Amino acid sequence: MIVEKLLKETANKRIFSVTFIKRTTGEIRKMNAMRGVHKGVKGVGLNYDAPEKNLLTVYDMKKKGFRSINLDSVLEFKANKQKYVK
Hints:
There is one protein chain. With 86 residues, the chain is mainly beta. It has one helix at residues 2-9; strands at residues 16-21, 28-34, 55-60, 65-70, 74-79, 82-85. It has one domain: SH3 type barrels (Roll), CATH 2.30.30. It is built from one helix and six strands. A hairpin with a 6-residue loop joins strand 1 (16-21) and strand 2. It starts with a helix and ends with a strand. The relative contact order is 0.30.
């Protein structure tokens, strides 16, 4: 349920915040991100299929680079002045 809301509410290229559990280390990660960013894209693509692994590729505003969010472990997100909790 929260994943569908995340995908719907963040499709407008606005900054949102998300809290999730990192797949690799298990630590909780908070990120300010934006979807739909094309700046810095080199056209090479990923070495894996992100939707197949249930990952969402976003632009991390703080680290100024692309990151992946594990959609299976989203705990909460804030978008459009609304907070959504799992």
